[in-house]
Amino acid sequence: MNDSAPSPLDKELNPPAHLADILGRVTALYRDEVAPREEALRHRLEDESQYLDADGKLHPEIIAARREIMRAAGKVGVYSAHLPTHLGGGGLGRTDMIYVEEQVYGYGCGLNPALLSWSEGATPRLLYCHDHQREQFTDPLVRGEKTSLHAVTEAGAGSNLFDMKTHATRRGDDWVLNGSKAYITNAFDADVVQVLAVTNPGGGRKTFTYFMFDAREMLGKGYRTGRVYQTMFGDGYTGELFFDNLVLPQSAVIGEVGQGFDIAVMSFNYTRMRRAGMCSGWSKYLIEKSLDRVQSRQIGDRPLGANQGIQWMVADMYIDWLQTRSLSLEVARSIDSPGPWYALPRPKDEIRRICALKVSNDESFYRVADRALQLHGGFGVMRNNPVNKLFQIARNLRIPGGTDEVQRTTIAETLGLRFEASKSAPVNAER
Fold first, then answer.
1. Are residues 249 and 285 in the same domain?
2. pLDDT tens by residue, 301-327
C-alpha cells in the first residue's frame, strides 16, 4: 500500500497545511534518492548474510548509501528540520516533526531512516557547542556531511549515570580522558565523538562534562574502538570504545564544565520524543502490510481476512496505533506551547508526559509488530523480511533511551511517589 494505492490510514494522518512543502520534499527525496539506492542494494538489504561485512560490521556499500542520502536530505533542509534556524535547521517543533518523522519511517526499514538525523547525526547537543566548534563539527553535522556517536552507556552504567566510571582529569590547560563505553551506535564509522565523562566526582548534577573530538584524528592517540556487538536485529553498527590517557584541550568541552548531566537529560528527552513519529510511521507500515497479507492470502475459498479472529487482530493494531499517535500529538503540543522543547530545565509534569510518550510508543509498536508477524505466519518468522526485522527493532526499542521500567519509575516519582533510596538503588536520569 505504501508505494501504490492509498491506504485507509492515509486520510487519518491529516498533517497541517504549512507542512505541505517539507512533506513534499520528503516524498521527492524518497523517490529520487532512497528508492534507487534501495533497489541497487536490494541484495544486501534483504539478505542478512550480505548486509554485514566479513568482520560483522555494516557493509561499506550501505554506509556509503546512507551518507549520500543524508547529504541529499541536508541540502534540501530535511535532515536537520528539528533544529532551530540559527543552527541551520528547519526550526520545526515537536508536533510538526511527528508528521515529518512518520512519513519518513512510513516507507519501512530500508535506507529511508537516513533522511533524518538520529543519534549519529545532528542532535540537540549541538545547541551547546561553542562558536569555535561550529565550522569543524556543528555545520557539517547539521548538513549531513559528517556523522557522530553519543558515548554515554558503559557495561556497568546504563540508566544510572552515577555509576559511570569514564572520567576526565585536568592536566594544565588540557583534560586527560580514561575509561570505556559499551553498546554505542555508529561506533566504527563516526567522524565525531561526543562523550560524557565524570569530571567532578560526587558533585551531584555538576558531576559530568561532555567532550567532542574528531574520531579519525584521535584514533590511535588514546582513542580506539573495540569489538562489534551482534545485536538482535543485526545492525552491524554497535560497538565499544576505549579512552586511554586521551589528551583533549579545553576547547573540546561541549557547553560548560559540569553541565553534562543537564545536556544528557535533554538528549534523552529528545530520543524519547522521537519515538512518536518513528513508531507511528512503522506501525502504519506494518498495518498496511498486514492488510495486504490478510486480503491476498487465500485459505480454502476465502481470504484470510474473512476470519473474525483475524479481523479483530487487525482492529487491535489500529487501536494501538490510533491511541498512541493521539497521545503523542497531545504531548508534543503541550511541550511546544511554552517555548522551545530543548530549553533547560524542564518542568516535572513535562518530563512525566515525555516518559509516558516513550512507554506508550514502545509498547504499542511492539504489540503491532507482534501481531503483524503472527498474521504473516510462516513468512513472518523467517528472517530477511521487513516484518520480522521491525519485530526485532520493536523489541529492542523498549531498552535504549531509558528502559520502559525507568520511565515508569520517573512517572511515579513526579506524581509524588518518591522515597529515600539506599545507596545501591538506581538513580534515574531525570534526577
1. no
2. 999 999 999 999 999 999 999 999 999
Is 288 found in the same domain as 253?
Answer: no
In a 3-state reduction of DSSP, which class is residue 55?
coil
Range of the domain at 161: 148-262
DSSP assignment string, 314-373: HHHHHHHHHHHHHHHHHHHHHHHTTS-TT-SSPPHHHHHHHHHHHHHHHHHHHHHHHHHH
Find, among 88, 84, 63, the residue nearest to 74 by Cα.
88
Residue 2 lies in a domain: no
Report yes or no on 108 lying in a domain.
yes
Write b or e for each residue in 192-229: b if 16 or more Cβ atoms lie within 10 A of its Cβ, otherwise e: bbbbbbbbbeeeeebbbbbbbbbbeebeeebbebeebb
pTM for this predicted structure: 0.94
pLDDT digits (tens, 9 = 90+) for 219-259: 999 999 999 999 888 889 999 999 999 999 999 999 999 99
Residue 423 lies in a domain: no
Residue at 210 is within a domain: yes
C-alpha cell at 414: 513526579
For residue 303, list its beta bridge partners.
298
Residue 194 and residue 201 in contact, taking contact as beta carbons nearer than 8 Å:
no
CB 151 within 8 A of CB 77: no
Residue from 147, 144, 149 nearest 68 by CA: 144
